[in-house]
Design goal:
The chain has 808 residues and is α/β, with parallel strands linked by helices. 39% of the residues lie in helices and 18% in strands. The strands form 8 sheets. It has a 9-stranded mixed β-sheet with strand order 3-2-1-4-5-7-6-8-11, with helices on both faces. Strands 13-20-17-18-15 form a 5-stranded mixed β-sheet. The chain has a 4-stranded antiparallel β-sheet with strand order 23-30-27-28, with helices on one face. It comes from Anaerorhabdus furcosa.
Amino acid sequence: MLKFDVKRKINTLRDILVGKVPDPKAQVEQITIAMIYKFMDDIDLEGMEFGRLGTRAFFRDDFEKYAWANIMQSENSGQQRAVLYAEGIDKMAMNPHLPQLFRDVFRGAYVPYRDPDTLNMFLKEISEFSYDNSEDLGNAFEYLLSIMGSQGDAGQFRTPRHIIDMIVEIVDPKKNESVLDPACGSAGFLISSYKHILENNKDKNGKSTLTTDDRKHLSINFAGYDISPDMVRLSRVNMYLHKFTKPQISEYDTLTSEEKWNDSYDVILANPPFMTPKGGIIPHNRYRVQAKRAEVLFVDYIAEHLNPTGRAGIIVPEGIVFQSANAYKQLREYLVNDNLLYAVISLPAGVFNPYSGVKTSVLLFDKTLAKNREEILFVKMNNDGYDLGAQRREIKQNDIPDIINIVKAFINGEDVSYSPLVTLAKKEEIKKHDYILVGERYKVVTVVNSVWPMVELGEVCEVFNGSTPSRTEKVYWEKGNIPWFTIDDVRTQGRIITYTNQHITEQAVTETSVKILPANTVLLCCTASVGEFAISKIELTTNQQFNGLVIKTKNLLPEFLFYCASQFKSELFRLSGETAFKFVSIRYVKQIKIPLPPLSIQQEIVTEIESYQKIIDGARQVVDNYRLTIKVDPSWEIIKLGDICENLDSKRIPITSSERNQGEYPYYGASGIVDYVDGYIFDEDLLLLSEDGANLITRVTPIAFSITGKVWVNNHAHVLKFQEKDTQKYIEFYINQMDISNYVTGAAQPKLSQGNLTRISIPLPPLETQQQIVAQITEEMAIVEQNKRLIEIFEQKIEDKMKEVWGE
């Protein structure tokens, strides 16, 4: 877990360096080198205290003067410190007293500035780090990467220590087993495994039972790979700091190299990179699953490199467990049918904050266990002991101890179905659902074909009208501090209300009919937007469009009433009559009936629906926040759109709606298909671009879209033909992300004329780069569409659940 103090120190160091070392990557280099330098001195001093009779091991003879403690002596001036530190950095690669891994760290290192004041401040801040807290090295380095942005671009995120420790505790590496992390980063999994083995090899007095041979085998049995030389350097040092004098960490491209392909391990633990480079990865042909996605290949690699009785724990992005693309499905089929996977732990989105809010799961492999089980265990983690915001503050709720116990009990053959965190699914059932590894898919419905007593709302709720204080009375509105709720609050934050956009004063409450409604009031719209509903998590007032349903019995949960409100719309429409202005009075609202199961059943229903809602919310974040983005390289040639395509506008033929004969061929307009007609005028790959309409400015929908095959196009869309299909698609994506307002004329009716269309400036990369961009964006958009489909599926599940409650 990234500590606030570490974050503060790093930010201070960056502030010190920024004037002299503006490049973030160079800042990472300078801070990391300095921390390692300081840690070496800490190790040296520790060695002097324990067994070397006051003699340094690293900084001695001609190098003694470069020891950190000597550089930082108070009698040294800032200039003297600057000279000693710069000389030390320059010469450390030649220090014969250092282990080779430290000499490698300093090879080529140098201080790019000589300002003594800056360097003095920098060195004093570095002195605050200590070998006693060696995990700070990994935390600090990866926090720097997150600031640079390279971490997210590479799909690499700092794995929280408590999540690593949970996985290690479950997988349970033994002292005689070989352990690999094929994407080791700062070696967190390897170090946690080492600590786990130490802890599990003690006698009753707490003394280690590991022999000299055991420790020797540990140093040989632990291995890590990473493609980044910076991370290899960091992990080697981190391993050294944890008593691995010759760490087996290799700079190695796990996904494309075959050099280590024949190596296998008893235990593999990993949090592999999630992102794939543009154009995909080009792997060799020894993988079981043919894919170009990094996360698919890493899981395949791990499965292929386990020994016959091997075990693994892998953190994977959520797409692995449900995406429908062939490679993902083929991978899941392999994991299930070949008896590798025995459990999936669903982690909450936000576990990787502050680096990323990405949703992840943990796949657990055990070749022996999976072979003997017909079921796969799904465990849902709701809380990991920290809130899911950017600061990750510690909270009381923590499912990790329970999850460890659940998985261990499952491994031991015990019944774990009692836990609300658990879903068990037979492999045959998983096969029927395209091997989707989402536990909610296989949950047994708690309430089936049950009919509960029906009660009127008036029996279980007080129903209050909302009201609007006079707008002309400023004393009711100015500097108000009492939340006042309207339909706009639903539109801005959804149906769970935690704040309001407007406030009224206490005077408005005392002098008008406005009533303060308590938290957990269900808000039901009975005027105009009839059927809209929400639940307040705060005290508030509301306008006359809404009624407040305040529960007056202990036999009804507010959340259950809230979900019941989703079923009120048709009844409210019936009660409001066929008038233009819909209104339902309180008298009729009180007569609406709801089913009233026992409280325990209500809670089960609420828990199930909330689990679906969390999936919907996560998928909606993807859909709402995705923005098509093409990062332009300044070296790309700038061309005019008219120079790279043929304009076919002259072939367009508009047909009025009264003259159209219905048929099978799409009839296109400015924003897509308008109708279907019985003829066509184009039969080829084309790009259509809106010629007129407000959408040219508002951009609610894409203004450029590719079409193919037999179609008819009216005169509201420009028709462009390209020689290269990838260029067409690149232009489509680029125009949909760019601001074209400078090319649009007309205020009342915006228009993109053919002349202005041809003058649109386009940065055009080489064809190969176009293809890579098109492939990447196409894949991103496919993922967005999958998330839209996920929203539809789980909204339907909620709808089906509530219909079931009603006995439909």
